[in-house]
């Protein structure tokens, strides 16, 4: 029997949205404001519930990062992961994460956020990472996703791809939104908005 602990990141472990904070750190407020105006239909559609998380996120990612040199994006991600993200983690969430690791459980962050800016933090914490991947081709960021957005049902798909879950395994899951519902349904013990 293996015990797993699956944690959503944004809003569950963090006190704010990591993608928005990464945008601020990577491109700055002036560029962010210009890009937000250019992508306003997607933002309004998502805010009004007319667009799902996926197309809005793709439009925003393409707006700000398509064409970037891959090294520039990956370095920005490492910097964010090491210097900004740790300060965004809720103390109670950090304690629960550490508890699962101390018990010898298999712990994974399962997030719609991009792997390139979570990877260094996850490595430092000693936990697995399942997130959204961006496409890099010929040393440039294409603006497209290499994997489906890791949100909603896709979280369970990606968990099952990574881990050979068995009938006698025990699963904890932590989430805070409807995008975590399927992952929470997978668990023996599910916690909704546990660290607020």
Number-wise, the strands total 7
Quick check: average pLDDT? 92
Low-pLDDT stretches? none
Give the percentage of residues in beta strands.
15-25%
CATH topology: Rossmann fold
Main sheet overview: 5 strands, parallel
CATH superfamily: HAD superfamily/HAD-like
Protein name: Phosphoserine phosphatase
Organism: Candidatus Ozemobacter sibiricus
GO molecular function: L-phosphoserine phosphatase activity; magnesium ion binding
GO biological process, one term: L-serine biosynthetic process
Q: Can you give me a brief rundown of this structure?
A:
With 196 residues, the chain is an alpha/beta fold. The protein is built from eight helices and seven strands, in the order βαααααβαβββαβαβ. The longest helix is centred in the N-terminal third of the chain and has 21 residues, at 18-38.
Can you put this structure into words, describing what you see?
- Helices cover 47% and strands 20% of the residues.
- The chain is α/β, with parallel strands linked by helices.
- The protein has one domain: HAD superfamily/HAD-like (Rossmann fold, 3-Layer(aba) Sandwich), CATH 3.40.50.
- It has a 5-stranded parallel sheet with strand order 3-2-1-6-7, with helices on both faces.
- The longest helix has 21 residues, at 18-38.
- The radius of gyration is 17 Å and the shape is globular.
């Amino acid at each position: 029997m293996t015990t797993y602990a699956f944690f959503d990141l944004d809003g569950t472990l963090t006190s704010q949205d990591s993608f928005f904070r990464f945008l601020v750190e990577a491109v700055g407020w002036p560029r962010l404001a210009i890009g937000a105006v250019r992508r306003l239909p997607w933002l309004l559609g998502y805010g009004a519930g007319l667009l799902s998380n996926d197309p809005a996120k793709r439009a925003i990612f393409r707006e700000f990062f398509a064409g970037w040199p891959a090294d520039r994006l990956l370095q920005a991600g490492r910097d964010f992961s090491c210097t900004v993200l740790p300060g965004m983690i809720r103390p109670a969430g950090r304690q629960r994460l550490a508890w699962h690791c101390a018990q010898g459980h298999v712990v994974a962050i399962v997030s719609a956020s991009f792997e390139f800016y979570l990877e260094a933090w996850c490595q430092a914490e000693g936990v697995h990472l399942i997130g959204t991947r961006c496409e890099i081709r010929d040393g440039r960021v294409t603006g497209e996703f290499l994997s489906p957005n890791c949100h909603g049902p896709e979280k369970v798909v990606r968990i099952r791809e990574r881990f050979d879950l068995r009938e006698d395994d025990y699963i904890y899951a932590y989430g805070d939104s409807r995008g975590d519902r399927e992952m929470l349904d997978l668990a023996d013990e599910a916690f909704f908005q546990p660290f607020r």
